[in-house]
Amino acid sequence: MDEWFVVKVINFDEKTKKFEVLDEEAGDDEEGGVQKTYKLSASCIIPFPERNDPSGTQEFPAGRNVLAVYPETTALYKATVISTPRKRKSDEYLLEFDDGALPQRTVPFHKVVPLPEWHRQ
Questions:
Q1: What's the pLDDT band for 32 if we cut at 50, 70, 90?
Q2: Going along the chain, which residue ranges are E strands?
Q3: Strand 112-114 with 18-23, pairing
Q4: Cβ(92)–Cβ(86) below 8 Å
Q5: How far is CA 115 from CA 42, 78, 112, in A?
Q6: Closest C-alpha among 114, 61, 115 to residue 86
Q7: Could you tell me what percent of the chain has a pLDDT over 70?
Q8: Which GO terms describe its cellular component (predicted)?
Q9: Which CATH code, of 2.30.30.140, 3.40.50.1970, 1.25.40.340, 3.40.190.10, is assigned to 58-119?
Q10: Taking the complete model, does pTM exceed 0.85, yes or no?
Q11: How far apart are CA 12 and CA 9, in angstroms?
């Protein structure tokens, strides 16, 4: 299973062409609550849309599979678009998360990204 989570880019290494990123959530008790850093290639990073500019972002139609930040977490999960911000006259998507146990939730447009092509199988 793939894991997707919110990170903050803190550095780009010109030599290795990798981004150094910081996990937005502190580690669990076993790790002493310390935020982890990772070195990732650009192909492992999906940038979020600009929070202040909904007009310049891609809109996903109803029925499209996306990755979205589950409310009140820093983890992204596969979800299906139920209705778009334009239809809802808001800046939020109505999504149904794929685990089946999770109810439909509203998620701000800037926390929804395309599901990578290689992940759509």
A1: low
A2: 4-5, 7-13, 18-23, 37-41, 65-69, 75-83, 92-97, 104-108, 112-114
A3: unpaired
A4: no
A5: 15, 7, 9
A6: 61
A7: 84
A8: nucleus; SAGA complex
A9: 2.30.30.140
A10: no
A11: 8
Residues 23, 4: Cα–Cα separation, whole Å:
11
Residue 72 in this model has a pLDDT that exceeds 50: yes
| Residue 86 scores a pLDDT above 60 | yes
Q: Report residue 18 as tokens.
A: 């990798």
The residue assigned the tokens 């009140």 is 72
pLDDT at position 94 is 94
Domain positions in the chain: 4-44, 58-119
